[in-house]
Write a structure and sequence with these properties.
- It is built from 6 helices and 5 strands, in the order E-H-H-E-H-H-E-H-H-E-E.
- By secondary structure, the chain is of the alpha/beta class.
- It has one domain: Rossmann fold.
- A 5-stranded parallel sheet has the order 3-2-1-4-5.
- The mean pLDDT is about 95.
Length: about 120
């Protein structure tokens, strides 16, 4: 694994943004998702259409949150004033040595955070 997919990348894919779909196709072998991403993506679907989303999400390793990751997320939240889901994403990426693939430049400017990858712009 090399990349942790942020929720916005998968949401863009489901919203028909071609650049997101292309990025997923190119990186799927090296990508993982967090349980945060899984929950955020599935929260946007009704029960029936969620089955297609589950099939895609199940293709990726789903990284859990353990105590050490939670402790790091708390530290990152305090240091950067991130919302807790963003702090968890950053902590999971850092603990697994992954790049966080996101479009969230406001919270994760790539020039400030070496673990951030902005794969495309919309």
């Amino acid at each position: 694994m090399k990349v942790l997919l942020d929720s916005v990348i998968l949401i863009d894919h489901f919203n028909g943004i071609e650049r997101a779909s292309t990025f997923l196709a190119e990186s799927h072998v090296d990508a993982a998702i967090s349980v945060i991403t899984r929950a955020e993506v599935l929260a946007g679907f009704a029960a029936g259409p969620a089955r297609a989303a589950v099939r895609l999400l199940d293709r990726y390793p789903n990284l859990p949150i353990d105590a050490a990751t939670a402790d790091l997320a708390a530290q990152l939240r305090r240091a950067h004033r991130w919302r807790l889901p963003d702090a968890f994403q950053a902590a999971i990426a850092q603990r697994h040595g992954l790049k966080l693939a996101t479009r969230n430049r406001r919270d994760f400017p790539p020039d400030k955070f070496a673990f951030v990858l902005i794969p495309y712009r919309v």
